[in-house]
Specification:
Layout (H helix, E strand, L loop, with lengths): L5 H14 L6 E7 L3 H9 L7 E7 L5 H6 L6 E6 L4 H15 L4 E4 L11 H9 L5 E5 L4 H6 L2 H18 L12 E4 H6 L11 H11 L4 E5 L13 H26 L4 H30 L5 H27 L8
Parallel strand pairs: 1-2, 1-4, 2-3, 5-7
Antiparallel strand pairs: 4-6, 5-6
Helix pairs in contact: 7-10, 11-12
């Protein structure tokens, strides 16, 4: 019988207990900042099966607290930050409150009306049925939505999606900026909350931490909803801002997964492929520059050394990526 660590054992126990509950307790967290005109409409559309609606007033200066207090919905639990902590900070407070209230599944719905609460049933279904630990909305499942996107935004979304896949290890995820999520309570107890970002990088950092908990992710198709607001976060604008964080997260994931937790074929591909690729690039660049400076033709054998190193290194790195894709949590279930 395989042995498991104490943390892993607790995670299995929590999941087993949750599976015995016929009707899971659902909590919805609404991170709220400058959404006083919209919050009543959002709360009013939350389905009746949701047991708790946790509104986290993130030091909103627009009278949000008084609006929430006047809602009259007994499901509403209000928590206020004295200092603005960002959407991630608000969600960490909401997650903690949801666990305190005994929720089995905790979902996130923004307070600006751009996420339709009617989709909550679809969002929690993969988790309630035991097929996922984390569900995330995907606005681009419908190809007609993608066709309507400007080319620059489409390319930006593809580039950002690839970086998120590499950083998180969830190669099947798309629409990485989508904040409509739902989590199993056992997953929230398992992940390292301190490593979740406090600002707009929150959703991506949640994916990165969920990977280390071996959480199964499912995309849930959804249509975008705009309630007179425009998104403050675009894929194109996010790439320069997020690229450093994403590269750092990717390096952390690969090192922890393939050099600290394990050493397998992916590790061998990386330690042999990356040096070969770097050597080939440096060798070729040096001899090209030297040939240009001296005005002499570089010998064929010298050229081939660089070419072979680049080709071999690229093939090994590509094989590492293929193997990493196969290691995505839950991939064998798909």
């Amino acid at each position: 019988m395989p042995q498991v660590g104490a943390g892993e054992f607790r995670y299995l126990v929590f999941d087993a207990v949750e599976s015995l509950v016929s009707t899971p307790v659902i909590a919805v967290v609404i991170p709220a900042y400058r959404v006083a005109p919209y919050i009543a409409g959002v709360v009013g559309r939350v389905p009746a099966f949701v047991r708790h609606i946790i509104v986290v007033d993130d030091a909103s200066p627009d009278g949000l607290a008084s609006v929430v207090a006047s809602l009259g919905d007994p499901r509403v639990v209000s928590v206020r930050h004295e200092v603005n902590r960002g959407v991630g900070g608000a969600m960490k407070t909401g997650f903690a409150k949801g666990l305190e209230l005994g929720a089995d599944i905790v979902a996130k719905v923004d307070g600006d009306g751009q996420m339709d609460p009617a989709l909550l049933e679809q969002m929690i279904e993969p988790i309630a049925s035991g097929n996922a630990d984390l569900a995330k909305g995907n606005r681009f499942d419908d190809l007609s939505v993608i066709r309507r996107m400007p080319l620059v935004r489409r390319v930006g979304n593809l580039a950002l999606s690839f970086l998120v896949k590499l950083a998180s290890g969830y190669w099947s995820v798309f629409d990485p900026c989508n904040g409509y999520i739902a989590c199993r309570a056992g997953l929230l107890r398992r992940i390292t909350m301190a490593r979740l970002d406090d600002r707009y990088f929150f959703e991506i950092s949640l994916l990165c931490e969920a990977y280390f908990a071996d959480a199964v992710l499912r995309d849930v198709p959804m249509a975008p909803v705009y309630a007179g607001e425009t998104s403050s976060l675009s894929p194109v604008g996010s790439i320069p801002h997020f690229s450093v964080k994403l590269i750092g997260r990717a390096a952390h994931r690969l090192f922890k997964s393939y050099f600290m937790r394990d050493f397998n074929v992916v590790s061998l591909f990386v330690v042999s492929g990356v040096p070969a690729l770097v050597f080939g690039a440096v060798w070729s660049a040096y001899h090209w520059a030297r040939s240009s400076q001296l005005g002499v033709v570089t010998p064929t054998g010298t050229v081939m050394i660089g070419v072979l190193a680049i080709v071999l290194g690229f093939q090994l790195v590509l094989q590492a990526l293929v193997a990493d894709v196969a290691n995505e949590p839950g991939r064998q279930r798909q």
